[in-house]
Amino acid sequence: MKPAAFEYFRASNAVQAVGLLQQYREAKILAGGQSLVPLMNFRLSRPSALVDISGITELARIVPTAHGLRLGALVRHQDLVDNPMVRETIPVLAEAAAHIGHWAVRNRGTVGGSLAHADPAAELPAVMVALGADIVVMDAEGERKIPARAFFVGFYTTTLGSDALIVAIEMPRPREPVGFYEVVRRHGDFALAGALVEAGESTGAVTWFGVTPAPVRMAWTALAEDEGLRRQQWERLTRDLDFAGDEAFRRPLAVTVAERAYQRARGGH
Amino acid sequence: MVETTRIELLVNGERLTADVEPRWSLADVLRHQLGLLGTHVGCEQGVCGACTVLLNGEPARSCLIFAVAVADGVAITTIEGMNRAEGMTPLQTALREHHGLQCGFCTPGMVLTAHALLTREPEADEGRIREALSGNLCRCTGYQFIVDAVAAARPAYRKEEP
Amino acid sequence: MAEQAMRPQMMGARVARVEDPRLLTGQARFLDDIQVPGMLELAFVRSPYAAARILDIDTGKARKLPGVHDVLTFSDCPYRLWQRTEYQVGQPALADGGVFYVGEPVVAVVADNRYLAEDAAEAVRITYEPLTPVLEMRAAILEEPRRVHAGAENVFFHRSHRTPGFEQAFADAPLHLTATFRLNRQTAVSIEPRGTAALPDPASGRITVYASTQSPHRMRSDFSEIMEIPEHLLRIVVPEVGGGFGMKANTYPEDLVVVAAAIKLRRPVKWVSDRMESLLADVHARDDIHDVEVAFEPSGRIVAVRDHLMADGGAYPAYPFSGAVGETSLAARVLTGPYHIPHLATEIDCTYSNKMPLGAYRGVWGPVASFIQEGIVDRVARRLAKDPAEVRRVNMIRPEQFPYRNAAGAVYDPGSYGESLERALDLIGYEERRRLQRLARESGRYLGIGISAFVEPTAMASSEAGSIGYEACSLRIEPTGKVTAAMGLGPTGQGHETTMAQVIADQIGVDLQDIVVLHGDTDSAPFGGGTGGSRSGPIGGGAALVAGRQMGERLKTYAAHMLEASFDDIELGNGKAWVTGVPSRSVSIREIAEIAYTDVKRIPPGLPIGLELVARYLPTRSVSFSNGTHIAVVEVDPPTGLVSVIDYAVVNDCGQLINPTIVEGQIHGGVAQGVGAAILEALRYDDDGQLTTTSLMDYLLPQATDVPRMQIAHLVTPADGEGGMKGMGEGSLIASPAAIANAISDALEPFGVLVDTLPVTPRDIIRWTAQSGF
Description:
The structure holds 3 protein chains of 3 kinds.
Chain A: E1 7-10, H1 14-23, E2 27-30, H2 36-41, E3 49-52, E4 62-64, E5 68-72, H3 77-82, H4 84-89, H5 91-98, H6 103-106, H7 111-117, H8 123-131, E6 134-139, E7 142-147, E8 152-154, E9 157-158, E10 165-172, E11 178-183, E12 193-199, E13 203-209, E14 216-221, H9 227-238, H10 247-265
Parallel strand pairs in A: 1-3, 2-3
Antiparallel strand pairs in A: 4-5, 5-10, 6-7, 6-10, 8-9, 11-12, 12-13, 13-14
Chain B: E1 5-11, E2 14-20, H1 26-33, E3 52-55, E4 58-61, E5 75-77, H2 79-82, H3 90-97, H4 107-120, H5 126-133, H6 144-152
Helix pairs in contact in B: 3-6
Chain C: H1 20-24, E1 40-46, E2 52-58, H2 60-63, E3 68-72, E4 98-99, E5 105-111, H3 114-123, E6 125-130, H4 137-141, E7 155-162, H5 166-172, E8 175-187, E9 195-201, E10 206-211, H6 216-227, E11 234-237, H7 253-265, E12 269-272, H8 275-281, E13 284-296, E14 302-312, H9 323-333, E15 343-351, H10 366-384, H11 388-395, E16 404-405, E17 411-412, H12 417-428, H13 430-442, E18 446-458, E19 471-477, E20 483-487, H14 496-508, E21 515-519, H15 536-563, E22 570-573, E23 576-579, E24 582-588, H16 589-597, E25 612-617, E26 624-637, E27 642-653, H17 660-680, E28 710-715, H18 731-747, E29 757-758, H19 762-769
Parallel strand pairs in C: 1-12, 8-29, 10-11, 14-15, 20-21, 27-28
Antiparallel strand pairs in C: 1-5, 2-4, 2-6, 3-5, 7-15, 8-13, 9-10, 9-12, 13-14, 16-17, 18-26, 19-20, 19-25, 22-23, 23-24, 26-27
């Protein structure tokens, strides 16, 4: 399990990184390496070159904005867990980040890397979709924003071009309480199913992950007070989900995680 | 022939140089170029934790890091860097007293992870200890005596009151 | 003082291990730490097909890559495991014209380092003609869809056994039930992967093979026989081994290839398995199906059990021990466990398939036998609406029945069967747990309590570690009085350097730190059986004890002579020998050693020069049974299908304990593996025979957060062999899957669930419970 040979470049700023991506068409970005390097060790991914952006310190910052937070692409998962600003402004982000892998992985893995990798069972893509984050990407044309809800399009597939780099994520402060729940076989595993539920007074939305090829957000109006009726509503919402041929297992899980995330949003446990 | 790059690593307080291929993992470079064989390789996919080292005091998988990509000035601590002239650390001693190891292959990674945890959270309770160690697989001990040992080592990490 | 030497000081003491400091400080040296100048690394090209003919192998491009020294195929390494006729087929070291499972070694590449070797392995071009794989046990028995090996029937091992009067007893019983039990494929997954390094020594013409193995002498014999290397020109050295669990007891095709490559290239060559290789090609285990019928009475008494035992042995019998034969034939001998079940009929079929060969993993036959026997008891209890503990009491072998001959003819030496059950029920607080379970159910929570009473045959005449029933210990007191022992054991974390020293220390009266126990080097150790089958404690410990006693007698003879006292009045302790009651009349062992080696004229008449001996110990019993009871408490969350093991109690009886802390560590580890076996670990092949679980993201090992805190109590029913020890390395993994399975069944009793397949997955639980309106 040794990776194939590659050329290695260390970028000192985002513009340079984008230039290298253009120059080496089969290059990949190396940030924390926690998703990419295992694939390379299995030789399932064999980029001809790696563009290492981990030294670009300005991409590692968390800064407050008028509406919430701007996370540099290199912010580590453990920073999301520990950072007081994150914990206060978007507590569900810190909560979700704590469920990513294990400590050693969170110390290296980056927000941008997780979003670019787009594992359907990963937490951060779902958080971004639920909260309506914008993903700031840079390519030869310059910087632009892609709404998270238009970014994840399928299994490990995004609308990020192969010559583009995620530089930041702009996250709004949630207006409503958001509950997070996921089902994992072991602590730190990728989720079998997970959900974030934004629970407003009468309206709200659920974002599922792990059950479909990419996170899916669905809004509702008027949710029942009675748990039994509410489960039927979740059930109806799941009818439009693409369970990728594993419906018997995933649909009941989807209902359960939605209900439990909802209860957490409403202050339960 | 294969091209190599000269790199400088700050390992256990020493500046060491090695000629590496970009694809060589930090684990392989520590082990096979620098002779620091206490770092073990168990899965090369970041799951088992045997290759755990500390980067600036925080645990990281040395099998998922290319040595060439370790930034200048990052302090790498391997199990060899835990050793003191006067003998084992209180954590290592506790692991021995509590029979927190059997085959010992996962042990260096366990020691480093537990050390980082207690440095950060000297009051970590059993739940926190288990959570922090959950990324370090042990096939021999069933973890109980490891957890007991880490708990027993807590006093050594408490800061003295001024 | 007078009694000091009579009372063992070290046997039974919770001594900290002598192995630990080097392991804790990163100074221990494992297989991959063996590095010598000029060493080359080897990588394998493995079969991507479950079954295929090989039409062509083109190594031309690979040979031209930088750093490549050689590319080997079968003709470079024309050896087969199982050259003898037991099983009609034997695995070639490298594929010989065809492949029979995914992961089978086909070509070996030797290069400057592993990176370059893998590059070259990728460049080897092999043309295959795929064949229909044989993947299902029941079909394979019927020779469907075809034979795995054209020249051999798919059923490679068949046995049947029936107690006299079985059919009548079965028919006469008023109640019957049937069940099919399935244990999926699992494997040991030592955290240190396997590995082998071969170092030809041009000066002596000998070859030193460093091997991550449990059985050094057996491996030397294997190389010698299979590769026709004279045995005296071979040296096997076992460095630190990072876990074995039975999986490292085999000689593998890769081992032969490494040795052949080193001989061919006259260079040191090393191969270390990576994790993908380890999941593909470390022997697999379990993979059993049992069709069971049970006859019982309204009282809960079980009268007769019929079982068709099937195991999927994979493509070849692993060498020198087919796991399928072990899984079934030994299970058939202890299928009645600790219960007095008078009638048994067993039929065994071990089949070939296009999967990785089956070998040993801790417990071998035991986890499945316990799963069935404890599953049967719980089914009887469920059917009769009785408490599972009560049905166990009704059936348990009683103390007056020892020595007990079970329905398969196995003879149990005395144990604490009923007592261990009662102690375990106390330890877990059984009645209170039942009350809490009822309360929890009222609030929609599903707690379950699972009992598993077990027997563990240990110290057997043959095991996966080899077919010799004895162990040997050479013992030498050095001229300065320090002590060197050497044994043929192959410890993989059990702490034999500590426990064997404990046994010896008592016998010769020296401090633990004055004894070194060497092992795993065929140049230093007397021929021995290695470690496996829970034999090292009772048989290895017995050998150490006998060697120590003989040395102690020699020391006493010296002392009696020197102190002009009677032999019977000499006591040993603290590095000295003295006359009973007169501690001032003493001589140090160092002084004795000086005489024995240098001042030899003073050696007492009749004694040889030096203080050196070899003792061999062969137990008179062919097997000794440990026993105990495990109780697991689980909580099942039906909507997510998740199981948490929340509490656990073990009462264990392995006779005399050498070091209770080490015994407890062994139990903890086995229970953790039982958690894996019960709810996490499965090797899955798809319909094409591709292994889909080739990483630790797919093959799930228990983490610190998955394993409960365990309470352990010891009972001691000494064995009648030397030292009174019984083996105990496997019992915890024998008992624990059944305990957890039964606890899950118990938790899901409202849904009518009785677990019959392990591991239990979230998918299973959701399927069982989803219709019920969550």
